[in-house]
Each structure stands twice: as C-alpha cells, then as structure tokens.
C-alpha cells in the first residue's frame, strides 16, 4: 500500500463521516404529527384535560406560557422536570418531562442556568485593643510627693502601689 492510496482512504472516510453527520440532524426535525412544542401548539390527545380542564389531576397548565410568567410554585415544578432524548408516542425527539407530562422539543433547548452566587467569605479582623490595658499598679513618688502622671519626674525611685478595686 502506497502513500497515495492511504490519502484516498482517509479522504473517503472523511466524506462518509460528513454525510452521516449531516443526515443525523434529520431525525430530530419536525416531521408533522399531532404533538407540538411548548410554544402554544396542540398537545398529545392522550392527556385529557391538559389545557386547564378541571379533570386535570393537579398538573399546572404550562401550555403556551413563557417561563418568566410562571407562578413561583409552577417555576419550582417546571425546574423539577428532566430531559429525555428518545422515542415517546411514536416520535424521536428531545422531551421535557414534568410530573409525567411530556413536552416535545424538536431540538435540545438550553434554558438559562440557575444562578448560584459565589460564596461570600467574611473574614472578621481581630478586635483592636482600645488604648493600653488597665494598670495593675499605680506609681508613687516620695520626692516630690504624688502619683504618676501628676508628677512627671521623680528624684527617688518610683514605688509600685497595687491597684485596689
């Protein structure tokens, strides 16, 4: 096998791979049918009461509504759903499943992510001492007589007098 035949084989493999990749998107495209997307088209006939009928068993009516207009309880329920990619009711597509109700999307939808603020770390600085610690002794001078700081200098050694509470 020479270098020219290796290049031809690689080129043929690349062309085949490109054809397969281009055809794969056709599986997810809308091919008609009774199901619709989240944006107001009709839903599956098997879910009776889906459009707000009183017989509907506690599921909120997400039909045709923008996520920003959901009530807080509806937002929590909608966020509790899950993505499924595969077959359901004869359709191969992306599905958002909420409380057992399947919503079809012809292609994956990436909603806004849930905002999680960064952790706030507050480092409290140690308390700064206010002034000097309380004195454990007073200093008395015998010449001239008096206590520091009222007597600024002493001609003899200072005497420490314990503080009485």
UniProtKB/TrEMBL annotation:
* Superkingdom as given in the UniProt entry: Bacteria
Whether Signal counts among this entry's keywords is yes
Q: Which UniProt keywords apply?
A: Signal
Signal peptide residues are 1-18
This protein's name: Lipoprotein
């Amino acid at each position: 096998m020479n270098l020219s035949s290796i290049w031809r084989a690689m080129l043929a493999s690349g062309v085949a791979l490109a054809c397969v990749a281009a055809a794969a998107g056709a599986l997810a495209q809308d091919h008609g049918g009774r199901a619709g997307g989240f944006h107001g088209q009709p839903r599956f006939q098997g879910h009776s009461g889906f459009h707000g009928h009183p017989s509907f068993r506690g599921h909120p009516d997400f039909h045709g509504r923008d996520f920003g207009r959901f009530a807080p309880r509806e937002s929590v329920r909608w966020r509790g759903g899950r993505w499924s990619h595969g077959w359901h009711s004869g359709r191969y597509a992306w599905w958002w499943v909420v409380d057992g109700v399947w919503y079809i999307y012809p292609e994956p939808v990436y909603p806004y992510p849930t905002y999680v603020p960064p952790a706030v770390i507050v480092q409290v600085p140690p308390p700064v001492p206010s002034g000097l610690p309380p004195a454990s002794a007073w200093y008395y001078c015998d010449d001239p007589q008096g206590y520091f700081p009222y007597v600024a200098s002493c001609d003899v050694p200072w005497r420490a007098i314990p503080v009485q509470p």
